[in-house]
Specification:
Chain lengths: 278, 129
């Protein structure tokens, strides 16, 4: 029996998942399950290959997914080579990838699809793991609008364990690790976060908070559905508040999170409101 | 009488897994509400310290003794730096929070720390309701 993490292959729109895997069978199973789930959810499925070519991927995937040919000709499935999405003249081009995903979303809307489900072979970054981690962290900002779900497949045969740990920490979600979901909010500007935050996704949380430092006015971080935050990650909230005008950062949360914030004295730099008070 | 409850090795990627296992076992052992939350947070902070400062991995044991739940976290890191006893008091400024041992002390009872050049072992008990 092949074990492939189930729920991360049926993500919500807005999820950014790191999925380490062992061997081609796991890669193929994950690709099949992800494609079937994306089509069932009436999203546009975009598969970005690297180790394999789009042609070979199509050849083995099509027989495994019912209705694949029709879905592809209707624009519900696209398979691209990483060289055509991530790179320009052999150099990593984040703007090109992010622009490409935004275009995919525009096409998805025209076709009446609900969002974009992207499956990305992360082996494109194997020679520059720190650069890849920085890119993945910067990409988190894209997920706050919750029209895109991405699962990044990390091959344990190519990436050393430390590189996988580093990659997992910049993804808000990885199997058997803390799971963070977030959404941008406006008027007042801010963020809604739910799930849990610890060392295994702390850097992802840092990257999600970073854009708030540039917000001029009042910022509200709604953590009322956050189940757990550790002290080190809670300190990121006080760091964000200190980088902003005094008194302009509010965290709304339940009693458990409020206690952690009080213990690390974050309440000296940000306003902690209990869920019932707003 | 000492009854083993859980024994688990952990490293960076297993912090969440160990915390969830501890939460489940502690609830089964009768902890609930705030004492459960505090015990789980203490375990999380001490295991996180072991990963970040204590060589990257460690071993956790839970046991029940005289109606109380106990936890021991051992790492093989370089030990606590000189002056760590000062870390047991809450920091006076928010800038430097040290290794958060003071936080663990606020969350549990009977904290004992044994630290040397071959590792650190932290033992503590859950607060009674």
């Amino acid at each position: 029996m092949l074990h492939v993490a189930g729920s991360v292959l049926d993500p919500d729109l807005g999820d950014h998942v790191c999925l380490p895997f062992d061997g081609e069978r796991e890669r193929m199973t994950a690709t099949r399950v992800f494609t079937v789930n994306g089509l069932r959810r009436r999203a546009k499925v975009v598969i970005i290959t690297h180790a394999d070519s789009p042609e070979r991927t199509r050849a083995w995937l099509a027989p495994l997914v019912p209705g694949f040919a029709d879905a592809e000709s209707a624009g519900q499935v696209e398979i691209h080579a990483c060289a055509d999405t991530h790179f320009t003249d052999g150099c990593l081009d984040p703007e090109r990838l992010l622009g490409g995903l935004a275009d995919a979303m525009a096409r998805a809307r025209r076709h009446g699809q609900h969002g974009v489900y992207a499956l990305i072979d992360a082996s494109w970054g194997v020679r520059d793991a720190p650069g890849q981690a920085a890119f993945e962290a910067a990409a988190n900002e894209l997920f706050g609008e919750r029209w895109l779900a991405a699962v990044c497949q990390y091959d344990r045969g190519l990436f050393p364990r430390e590189a996988i740990d580093r990659a997992a920490a910049v993804h808000p979600i990885s199997p058997e690790q803390a799971l963070l979901r977030f959404a941008n909010t406006c008027s007042p500007a801010g963020l809604r976060v739910w799930g849990d935050i610890d060392l295994t996704n702390r850097q992802a949380f840092a990257s999600v908070l970073a854009p708030l430092e540039k917000e001029p006015g009042r910022v509200v971080i709604d953590a009322s559905a956050l189940d757990f935050i550790d002290a080190g990650s809670a300190r990121l909230l006080s760091a964000t508040a200190r980088a902003r005008p005094a008194g302009a950062t509010v965290v709304v949360c339940g009693e458990a999170v409020a206690r952690v914030l009080r213990m690390i004295r974050a309440d000296e730099v940000l306003a902690v409101l209990r869920v019932g008070d707003v | 009488m000492c009854r083993p409850v859980l024994c688990a090795a952990f490293a960076r990627g297993r912090i969440t897994f160990v915390r969830r296992a501890v939460a489940e076992h502690a609830a089964y052992e009768g902890l609930s509400g705030r004492s459960l939350e505090d015990f789980v947070l203490a375990v999380n902070e001490v295991t996180t310290n072991a990963v970040v400062h204590g060589g990257g991995h460690g071993r956790l044991r839970l046991w029940s003794h005289a109606g109380r739940l106990w936890c021991e976290v051992a790492d093989e890191g370089p030990g606590l730096p000189p002056g760590w006893m000062g870390d047991m008091r809450p920091p006076t400024r928010y800038a430097d929070c040290g290794r958060g041992l003071w936080l663990t002390r606020m969350l549990c009872d009977h904290i004992t720390i044994v630290s040397g050049p071959r590792g650190t072992t932290v033992t503590f008990a859950a607060v009674r309701d």
